[in-house]
Amino acid sequence: MAEMKDILTGLDRYEAFLVKLDKEISRMDDYRIGIIYTDIKHFKYINDTYGYQRGDMLLREFVNQVNDIDNKILCAARVYSDNIVVATRIENDLSNSEFRDIIYERNMIIENVLRESYLDRKLTLNTGISIISKDDRRLDAATAVSNANLARKLAKEMKDDCCVLFDAKMVEGIKKEVEITSSLPIALENSEFKVYYQPKIETKARKLIGAEALVRWQKPDGRFVMPNDFIPFIEQSGQVVDLDYFVYREVFKFIAKRIENGEPVVPVSVNVSRVHLNRMGILDYVTALFEEYKIPPQYVEFELTESIYIDDTEKALKLVEGLHAMGVKVSMDDFGSGYSSLNLLSDLPIDTIKLDKVFLKEASASEGRMKENDKIIISCMVDMAKRLQITSLCEGVETPEQSSYLSEIGCEIQQGYYFSRPITQSEFEDFIDNNINSYQEEQKLMVM
Question: What are the pLDDT digits (tens) for 233-250?
């Protein structure tokens, strides 16, 4: 029936697809069924930039390519927008991983066709796959598609692999995500989050020059939840904004207290999540904090990861310009981890680059020696920063050899376990008082 088809693509409507897939699952015998859930990365950007007519043409060509390559399709549907789901037959002599590799290769072919035909830019497909065997006949179609969709969402987050095979462990990940996101508001209310500070050391004078504020979550029973175990989840839910604002306020409060007591102060940098780019309320919030706590802007810095600039350079530029207008310095964190670092430096007014710790982490644990290639890369980046009049900071410094080499090539600031782990606020206050040296008088003059 005509109403059971999607007008734009000619594929089944999703409801009709589920009915067909349930029937296919019930009569499956000596083969398996693969559910392939795919979307086009940045499809909204394509519609917004080239127009919906061009986007519709791209989507139709995408569907045509899928139909041409796979001749074992059982049924296919457009779920919504650019989300396409396909059910295909898999012979039993083909392993799950081999099937995933075939889909990956298929995607590469489709991507190349679409890039050549429509867009002068990198175009990528995100794909999740779930596989149903005859032992899974009690699995309904909607759950099978949901599993494939979950794998697709994970594929969207991965840099190197845009085709992911569903695993039951992913469901446990979802449960963990729900647990984390639902407990965040209560954890904030109960003061379970604490701000830790990791000192930054000026290379030449070997003196404290600042710190980075990092958040730690300590449960009521004393257990710590590591940032890698909760930050990704609350970024996806958007709750990271509330956590960032908590950290900003704590840092402002800390600096204001030190100034009010006549104690030495060093600049503290805070991190900015990519979620802020789509909201931009951060500028209003930071302005309000400056008005409330009356601290000089040179005592607060903001760190944006390199990936934020790559994701949306235009919005990142507006954010940097807004912070600069307040007199605040901005650094690019994880510099060198992406593929567009050099282009970004020519476009964005960055004050500091933080060289990604990946360049230091390969040092031998037994010998503590740095790789010659890593030395060359770091040296070139530090030299480039100097020429661009950008301050260079290297994080992840753990050995005397690393620190000595960074001094030798003129890296201006160092940060890492060699100097100090992230420490509590009270420990950091002691660190300031014990390490401020001649910087103390300099800071007092700046406050006056």
Answer: 788 778 888 999 999 999
From residue 19, alpha-carbon distances to 25, 29, 84, 85, 141 in Å are 10, 18, 16, 14, 8
| Nearest by Cα to 275 from 316, 247, 246 | 316
Pairing of strands 268-272, 207-218: parallel
Confidence of residue 337 (pLDDT cuts 50, 70, 90): low
437 close to 209: Cβ distance less than 8 angstroms: no
62 neighbors 110 (Cβ within 8 angstroms): yes
For the chain, how big is the Rg over CA atoms in Å? 26
Computed from CA positions of residues 277, 279, 280, 286, in that sequence, does the dihedral angle turn out positive or negative? negative
User: Rounded distance, CA 307 to CA 336, Å?
Assistant: 10
> What is the spatial distance between Cα 183 and Cα 233, in angstroms, rounded to a whole number?
12
- Cα separation, 77 vs 18, whole angstroms: 9
- φ/ψ of residue 89, rounded to 5: -85, 135
> Ramachandran region of residue 386, left (φ > 0), alpha (ψ -120 to 50) or beta?
alpha
pLDDT value for 435: 79
Q: What angle do CA 268, 317, 246 make, to 5 degrees?
A: 35
Structure tokens at 66: 């899928």
Whether the Cβ atoms of residue 371 and residue 360 lie closer than 8 Å to each other:
no
Amino acid residing at 96? N
**What pLDDT is recorded for position 438?**
42
- Contacts of 376 by beta carbon, 8 Å cutoff, 6+ apart: none
Euclidean distance between CA atoms 108 and 102, whole angstroms: 10
